[in-house]
Amino acid sequence: MKACQYVEIGRPPQVVEVDKPTPGPGEVLLRVTASGACHSDEFIMSLPESRYVYGLPLTLGHEGAGVVAELGEGATGVEIGESVAVYGPWGCGVCHACAQGKENYCRYAAERGIRPPGLGAPGSMAEYMIVDSPRHLVPLGDLDPVATVALTDAGLTPYHAIKPTLPKLLPGTVAVVIGAGGLGHMGVQILKALTAATVIALDPKEPARQLALDVGADHALPSDESSIEQIRSLSGGRGATAVFDFVGIETTTALAARMVHPESDIVVVGVGAGAVPVGFFTLPFEVRVWAPYWGSRSELEEVLELARSGAIHVETETFGLDDAPTVYERMHAGTIRGRGIVVP
């Protein structure tokens, strides 16, 4: 079968022929129907050899959907031919976090070598993939896998980041989304679906700002110093009640820290190297700052329900598996509107 793999440190991914996998006990074989390309893939492929820990060759793709093709011995809970989405942050399944469906915060995953598909385990950017347990599959029902596969990360991650802030985002408040790309344009929609806040998107690129407006942002501004005063003006002089930084580099985290008011939230979602200093004289009083990771299985189910209701959708551009490396070239150049989806 064909698979898009990262084969050599510092080199672009390539489409190769590999053996079709066979499911072991408790595992599920999926015939992949769609796979999303993410900036996290680009991030790990940019790491130097001294920091790269994901194994080679690595079949990419941590956003996956497929049809159940085979069940390994003892695998139950899904049916052959069923259309499913893959819940990506795999854990041990039995620790306290996993028992709550929060495998994204599994206590033992790292020490036991349990890695997500496409981020250590073979991913979905292939004709077939192995899912280690049926509990990592969520039924799609009548949802189109190509249109919704990116919700497994690009929808789930913003949803998980936004959900704790909901009690603060009352009518009259302002929520800021920094970065209107694959995750950011979903963040805008989730905020509009779940809150009455004014949503302001920041991005240096005009097409990204237009995308944010197209999916519901109330305002879209360049992500520079000029945005701070404009946000204060749009909020009646108060500032942002919540800032979601989907970039996470030094300039964006510094921007976030300067636009909030007392008791605001700053959520750093992007995998850049930026940070928000926290101390008595660094931020307004009682500003909460945190960096979430992915989301829980139950939250993925909630995200899919939002999509099913029509409240959110992913802007997508599709590619064949042979063209999968092109997705990353386009992503690096910033010319993909929303999310690039590989369809085997």
Written account of the structure:
The protein folds into 2 domains: 2-153 and 295-343, Quinone Oxidoreductase, Chain A, domain 1 (Alpha-Beta Complex); 156-290, NAD(P)-binding Rossmann-like Domain (Rossmann fold, 3-Layer(aba) Sandwich). Helices cover 24% and strands 24% of the residues. It contains 10 helices and 16 strands. The strands form 3 sheets. Strands 3, 5, 6, 7, 8, 15 and 16 form a 7-stranded mixed beta sheet that branches. A 6-stranded parallel beta sheet has the order 11-10-9-12-13-14, sandwiched between helices. The longest helix is centred in the C-terminal third of the chain and has 13 residues, at 297-309. The radius of gyration is 20 Å and the shape is globular.
CATH topology of the largest domain: Quinone Oxidoreductase, Chain A, domain 1
Shape: globular
How widely separated are the two ends? Answer: 10 Å
Helix content, binned percent: 10-25%
What assembly state would you assign to the polypeptide chains in this entry? single chain
User: Which stretches are poorly predicted, pLDDT < 50 over at least 5 residues?
Assistant: none
Tell me the β content.
Answer: 15-25%
Query: Which CATH-level-2 architecture of the largest domain?
Result: Alpha-Beta Complex
> What is the CA-atom radius of gyration, in angstroms?
20 Å
**Main CATH class of the largest domain:** Alpha Beta
Q: Please identify the structural class as seen in this structure.
A: alpha/beta
Give a short account of the largest sheet: 7 strands, mixed
Helical run tally = 10
The CATH superfamily of the largest domain is Medium-chain alcohol dehydrogenases, catalytic domain
Give the integer mean of the pLDDT values.
Answer: 96
Report the strand count.
Answer: 16
